[in-house]
């Protein structure tokens, strides 16, 4: 099976977590895009969605699926999204598509985070995938210097502006031995909007696409 077929399989398998009559939190990226295709097949049974990016919003709307503002929603049963890496504690690196901040907000509103990923995303130690950090543009150099002190090699993602009007620094060569502590440290740097480390709030369920079918992991 190709990687995209594995992503499609997990995207569709997440449908079983969608309860009729609810508002569903929807992620961003190629795997979440398959979930949107799947969700469209039961669009008349759900109340609508909250979306983590302009790209996902556009795709949801193209299917005629209602998209609510996150401010209109008190709580969500589930948030379904992909990941760039996930470890065995269900902690993740996200933000390869620059949507990390809105993703973290919707994950915070949701009771359950359902991570959908192909098996190439499962790692023992997070950090091979460069860790994205969304930064206020005027703080870019300062934040880069602070991230360098943490032992990584921050690289400015040229030409990318997030949906919130900010920039991204990707931290290369940082093997993350203490994800919870690191998430807090990076979030505390002035000028950082969000780090794409989802450690304090990881996934509750992971649906992992493998050549032998979709495996479900829970803590
Ligand atoms: O900003 C993007 C998101 O965090 C994505 O969920 C993540 O990059 C995984 O994307 P994909 O499903 O395309 O591998």
Automatic annotation (TrEMBL):
<feature type="active site" description="Proton acceptor">
    <location>
        <position position="103"/>
    </location>
</feature>
<dbReference type="InterPro" id="IPR004788">
    <property type="entry name" value="Ribose5P_isomerase_type_A"/>
</dbReference>
<keyword id="KW-0413">Isomerase</keyword>
<feature type="binding site">
    <location>
        <begin position="94"/>
        <end position="97"/>
    </location>
    <ligand>
        <name>substrate</name>
    </ligand>
</feature>
<dbReference type="InterPro" id="IPR037171">
    <property type="entry name" value="NagB/RpiA_transferase-like"/>
</dbReference>
<dbReference type="GO" id="GO:0004751">
    <property type="term" value="F:ribose-5-phosphate isomerase activity"/>
</dbReference>
<comment type="pathway">
    <text>Carbohydrate degradation; pentose phosphate pathway; D-ribose 5-phosphate from D-ribulose 5-phosphate (non-oxidative stage): step 1/1.</text>
</comment>
<comment type="function">
    <text>Catalyzes the reversible conversion of ribose-5-phosphate to ribulose 5-phosphate.</text>
</comment>
<dbReference type="GO" id="GO:0005829">
    <property type="term" value="C:cytosol"/>
</dbReference>
<protein>
    <recommendedName>
        <fullName>Ribose-5-phosphate isomerase A</fullName>
        <ecNumber>5.3.1.6</ecNumber>
    </recommendedName>
</protein>
<dbReference type="Pfam" id="PF06026">
    <property type="entry name" value="Rib_5-P_isom_A"/>
</dbReference>
<feature type="binding site">
    <location>
        <begin position="28"/>
        <end position="31"/>
    </location>
    <ligand>
        <name>substrate</name>
    </ligand>
</feature>
<comment type="similarity">
    <text>Belongs to the ribose 5-phosphate isomerase family.</text>
</comment>
<dbReference type="GO" id="GO:0009052">
    <property type="term" value="P:pentose-phosphate shunt, non-oxidative branch"/>
</dbReference>
<dbReference type="InterPro" id="IPR020672">
    <property type="entry name" value="Ribose5P_isomerase_typA_subgr"/>
</dbReference>
<comment type="subunit">
    <text>Homodimer.</text>
</comment>
<dbReference type="GO" id="GO:0006014">
    <property type="term" value="P:D-ribose metabolic process"/>
</dbReference>
<feature type="binding site">
    <location>
        <begin position="81"/>
        <end position="84"/>
    </location>
    <ligand>
        <name>substrate</name>
    </ligand>
</feature>
<feature type="binding site">
    <location>
        <position position="121"/>
    </location>
    <ligand>
        <name>substrate</name>
    </ligand>
</feature>
């Amino acid at each position: 099976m190709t990687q995209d077929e594995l992503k499609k399989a997990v995207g569709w398998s997440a449908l079983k977590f969608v309860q009729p009559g609810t508002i569903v939190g929807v992620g961003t990226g190629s795997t979440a895009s398959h979930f949107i295709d799947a969700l469209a097949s039961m669009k008349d049974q759900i109340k609508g969605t909250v979306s983590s990016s302009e790209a996902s919003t556009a795709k949801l709307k193209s299917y005629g699926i209602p998209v609510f503002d996150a401010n209109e929603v008190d709580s969500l049963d589930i948030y379904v999204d992909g990941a760039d890496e996930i470890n065995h504690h269900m902690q993740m690196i996200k933000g390869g598509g620059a949507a990390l901040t809105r993703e973290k907000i919707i994950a915070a509103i949701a009771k359950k985070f359902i991570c959908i990923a192909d098996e190439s995303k499962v790692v023992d130690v997070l950090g091979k995938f460069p860790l994205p950090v969304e930064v206020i543009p005027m703080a870019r150099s300062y934040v880069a210097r602070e991230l360098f002190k943490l032992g990584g090699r921050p690289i400015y993602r040229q030409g990318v502006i997030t949906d919130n009007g900010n920039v991204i620094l990707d931290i290369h060569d940082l093997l993350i031995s203490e994800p919870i502590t690191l998430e807090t440290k990076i979030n505390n740097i002035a000028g950082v909007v969000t780090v794409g480390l989802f450690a304090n709030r990881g996934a509750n369920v992971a649906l992992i696409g493998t050549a032998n079918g979709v495996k479900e992991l829970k803590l």
